[in-house]
Structures are given as structure tokens and as C-alpha cells.
């Protein structure tokens, strides 16, 4: 249990509960379509009835949990249709965000991109060398940070938040690929290296094409064929 018997309804507790449940949805500990019962979740994660309900409402707003007509909750489905819809939205939001960031980004943004990609490279080396729950979690977080950093200079908080929402919805698909050994890390390293180079070189066409390929590979649907 993450928390003791003390009941707390503050935002910090809700945020911590949401982080733990979000992680377990992403890693498949809480599988698609599983019913989420308040009391069972409290035993596993802690918190009060109120804080757990607030947590599930937050995750429902993120698209990871669905509120049913009977006022209950369940983990959102993960069908092929869901995958294709998430792919569509990630392509739209992240490519728009990167395009704007490349037009607006300064040297400080470039430095953040380099740092985020360096951290991701180290996390990938660790997960390849010794795949386990710890390295997978660190790699997953490094992937998220790198994605967010690319968009961070786009000049729109709402666009960043929207892209983050769909990115979070896609994490369990990528982690499933990791568990199944279906990620080509050599091809991925080559693609990410080229993406960083194109971004720093402000080659918009190449950067957007590589980002397109990376998002598709991230969801296991293959690279787009370029002209």
C-alpha cells in the first residue's frame, strides 16, 4: 500500500494515486476493460473514497479510465480501433507542436532537446542490457520527457497538454511491444539520432517525416513511406 490509514483528500494525494494507477494501466497490471472498484483500489493504493473517486475522474479525463453508465469505472479498452484513433491524434498534435517549436525554439530549447535525447539514449541502453520493471519504467519516462521536450517551445500550453494526453494513452501499447520483444532498438536509435539532427538543423520537412515514422513505430504500426 502506498499510503497509510490516514485519510487525505488534498491534491497531492490525488496526484500520487493517479501516477501509480496510470503507471499500472500503462504496464498492463490493470488490463483493458477491467472494472475498477473503489474499495479494492484503496486496499492496493491507499487514499480515501473521495480521493480515489477524484483520481479516477482525473484518469477518465485523460482517456485512461472510462466512467460507466452505472457510475462505476473501468480501464479504457485497447482495441485496434483505439490504437488507430490514438495514432491519428498523436500524429496531428505532435507534428503541429514540433513544427511550431522549430519555428520558435531558442538555444535553451535546443539544449533541452539534446539533454532529453541523451537521457533517452542512456535509458535505452539500460533497458536493452537488462530489461526489468525498473529499467522499463525509467525508459518509459525518458521517452515521455523526450516527446514533451520536443514540443516545449511550441508556445501553446493547451497544445502541449493535449499532446501529452494522447501520448499517455499510447504508453501501454509501446510497453506491450517492449514486453513482447518487438522493438527494434537499433532502428530506433538510428531514427532518433536523425530526428535530433533534423530538429537542431531546423530541417522541418525531414524532422516531421521522422517524427511521423517514430510515432508509428512507437505504436507498432510501421513506418510511413515517404515520397
Element layout with pairings:
Blueprint: H1 11-26, E1 35-36, H2 38-45, H3 49-61, E2 65-67, E3 73-75, H4 80-104, H5 107-129, H6 133-151, H7 157-179, H8 185-200, H9 204-218
Antiparallel strand pairs: 1-3, 2-3
Report on the structure:
This protein has 227 residues and is mainly alpha-helical. It has two domains: 65 residues, Winged helix-like DNA-binding domain superfamily/Winged helix DNA-binding domain (Arc Repressor Mutant, subunit A), CATH 1.10.10.10; 139 residues, Four Helix Bundle (Hemerythrin (Met), subunit A), CATH 1.20.120.530. 70% of the residues lie in helices and 4% in strands. It has nine helices and three strands, in the order H-E-H-H-E-E-H-H-H-H-H-H. It has a three-stranded antiparallel β-sheet. The protein starts with 10 loop residues before the first helix and ends in a 9-residue tail after the last helix. The N terminus is likely disordered.
What class do helices, strands and sheet pairing give? mainly alpha
Query: How many structural domains are formed by the residues?
Result: 2
Could you say which overall geometry the principal axes of the C-alpha atoms support? globular
Q: Helicity range of the residues?
A: 55-70%
Elements, N to C (H/E): HEHHEEHHHHHH
Number of helix segments? Answer: 9
Terminal residue distance: 53 Å
What's the CATH topology label of the largest domain?
Four Helix Bundle (Hemerythrin (Met), subunit A)
The level 1 CATH classification of the largest domain is Mainly Alpha
| Strand residue percentage | under 5%
Main β-sheet, spatial strand arrangement: 1-3-2
Major sheet details: 3 strands, antiparallel
| Uncertain parts | 3-8
**Tally of strands:** 3
CATH-scheme architecture of the largest domain: Up-down Bundle
**The CATH superfamily title of the largest domain:** GntR ligand-binding domain-like
Q: Round the Cα radius of gyration to an integer and report it.
A: 18 Å
Amino acid at each position: 500500500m502506498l499510503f497509510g490509514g490516514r485519510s487525505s483528500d488534498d491534491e497531492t494525494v490525488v496526484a500520487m494515486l493517479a501516477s501509480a494507477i496510470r503507471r499500472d494501466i500503462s504496464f498492463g497490471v490493470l488490463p483493458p476493460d477491467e472494472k475498477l472498484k473503489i474499495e479494492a483500489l484503496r486496499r492496493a493504493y491507499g487514499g480515501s473514497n473521495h480521493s480515489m473517486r477524484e483520481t479516477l475522474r482525473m484518469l477518465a479525463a485523460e482517456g485512461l479510465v472510462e466512467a460507466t453508465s452505472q457510475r462505476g469505472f473501468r480501464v479504457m479498452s485497447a482495441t485496434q480501433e483505439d490504437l488507430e484513433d490514438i495514432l491519428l491524434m498523436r500524429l496531428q498534435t505532435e507534428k503541429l507542436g514540433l513544427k511550431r517549436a522549430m519555428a520558435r525554439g531558442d538555444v535553451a530549447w535546443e539544449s533541452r532537446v539534446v539533454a532529453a535525447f541523451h537521457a533517452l539514449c542512456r535509458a535505452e541502453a539500460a533497458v536493452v542490457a537488462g530489461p526489468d520493471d525498473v529499467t522499463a519504467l525509467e525508459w518509459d519516462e525518458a521517452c515521455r520527457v523526450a516527446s514533451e521536450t520536443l514540443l516545449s517551445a511550441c508556445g501553446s500550453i493547451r497544445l502541449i497538454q493535449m499532446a501529452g494526453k494522447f501520448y499517455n494513452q499510447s504508453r501501454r501499447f509501446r510497453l506491450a511491444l517492449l514486453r513482447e520483444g518487438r522493438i527494434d532498438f537499433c532502428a530506433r536509435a538510428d531514427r532518433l539520432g536523425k530526428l535530433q539532427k533534423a530538429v537542431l538543423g531546423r530541417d522541418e520537412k525531414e524532422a516531421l517525416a521522422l517524427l511521423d515514422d517514430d510515432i508509428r513505430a512507437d505504436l507498432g504500426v510501421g513506418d510511413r513511406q515517404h515520397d
